[in-house]
Amino acid sequence: MEEFGFYEILKLIGSLGLFLYGMKLMSESLQKVAGDSLRSILTAMTTNRVFGVLTGIFITALIQSSSATTVMVVSFVNAGLLSLAQSVGVIMGANIGTTVTAWIISIVGFKVSMSSLSLPLIGLSLPLLFSKNRGRKNWGELIMGFALLFIGLQELKEAMPDIKNNPEILDFLRNYTDMGFGSLLLFCGIGTLLTILIQSSSATMALTLALCHSGWIDFEIAAAMVLGENIGTTITANLAAMIANTSAKRAARAHLIFNTVGVVWMLICMPYFLKSIAWMSEHVLHGGNPFTESGSIPIALSLFHTSFNIINVVVMIWFANFIVKIVTALVPVKDEIDEEFKLKHIKTGTLSTPEANLFLAKKEISTYAESTNKMFSYLKSAFDEESEKNFVKLYDKISRKEDESDEVELEIANFLTSVAENRLSKENSMRVRAYFKAVTEIESVGDSILNITKAIRRKRDNKHEFSDHLIKNVNKMFDLVQKSLDVMVENSNKDSQDINMRKAYDIEKEINDLRTSFKTEHLTNIKAKKYKYVTGIIYNDIFSECEKLADYCINVSEALNESNE
């Protein structure tokens, strides 16, 4: 075996980096590319648990890699195209789909190598990446990310120590095959470890067969290694989820829990199950008894792998919602920033009545307003933040949230458009127009928050220090804007006839008066050269943008109030 030195370690880390970058690029471009069509297809394919399982089987059998399927599922969840509950069914199906691959290999001897298609895919994506059309460019990034993901996965496998072609390294293992149940646990752990190292359950299966062929392990120990491979194969998705959001991390953990629980119950009833597999191998498939004939072990192992995964899915599918609850508890949201702008109430398609649809749209607008209000709290933290590292984190999160805000605005607008296509009463038509306006204004609030954050970044990048007086003024303006946002959220949660416009107008007047006094004082200070001109520009940009933000807030309240006129 070749020496595994510093260079090899760097190759290993580099291939992991390529894999993770491919995952990130694919996930981000999916969000841009995946319009309603892909979302609708995925939702239709996973409308219930059974369809989700069938989807997982089909995709895995098609691309012949359960790891690839689960990585794609994680990226779909990360992009908001699949919910956590929908992803569990697909992941379950992937476990059955990977056994289809094993049978294809044993019967036909054919396996599609996705990594061999990666370079042609990059060639295909290149002209799209340089296209001026935003849509084509997004498709180019998606294809590039998909290709890089598989190149990274292939490099990851090759960068690992070459255990597969050097099974003699594992010669010592035959000393631990006669410890009863302890041997099963040991070799289950070895199967897990080998799959993590080799990054391919198929390769570990081949290694297991090589150990059987050498006579080092028997059928029962080989079956325990296969169970370990089922746990090890979940690591790829968990690696992909390292750079993903909370929901994607939960999907990866769901895969781990599903496979681990299946392995636990199988280990308990292993002796009885293996006897039934041996009987089927001998009398149904006429492949011989794997306990006495080493030549019949490959077929028996494939039968064991398939039977176990099918039974595990049939049993565990009834606990899908329970698994979702467990992973939700295991992977909590670290802080409010980690929660993304996502539709909470509107599902795909519209309901039967316009009233029901508009009720959902109103609830979604309220949630949208609340999320935007939280975004402003991150802006205030960014202004007060002294640590550059923490400021950059807040800036990136605000920037990401603004992108998500744009997506939510588009999705609510598309939903309202589909509602407007129906025959509506005069009152409902007015409500649709009002909701359109409210959504646009809330999105503008997000734009203003990002603009103020950019001004703060310019201040920090160019090392323009604000005096205590300027800091006090900005915080005074922020406090009033916060009140304006609170009123916007409060009104968005009320019925249109209960909206308090008086309170909204009073705060708006206070903000306008404060802006005017700041502007007058600012011009005087500039003439007196109390601070640098560039510092003054940034200061002026901040309080002026705050006043604009407050205008958008009152426009939201006015729009919702109009829906009752």
What is the β-strand count?
Answer: 0
Query: How many separate domains?
Result: 2
**What does the overall shape look like?**
elongated
Helix segment count? 21
Q: How helical, in percent, are the residues?
A: over 70%
Strand content: under 5%
Instruction: Give me the strand/helix succession.
Output: HHHHHHHHHHHHHHHHHHHHH
Which sheet architecture does the biggest sheet show?
none
Termini Cα gap: 80 Å
**Structural class given helices, strands, pairing?**
mainly alpha
Radius of gyration over C-alpha positions, nearest whole angstrom: 29 Å
- Residue-averaged pLDDT: 78
Describe the structure.
The protein contains 21 helices and no strands. About 1% of the residues have low confidence. With 565 residues, the chain is mostly helical. The radius of gyration is 29 Å and the shape is elongated. The protein folds into two domains: 325 residues, no CATH class; 220 residues, Methane Monooxygenase Hydroxylase, Chain G, domain 1 (Up-down Bundle). Helix 3 packs across helix 5 and helix 5 packs antiparallel against helix 14.
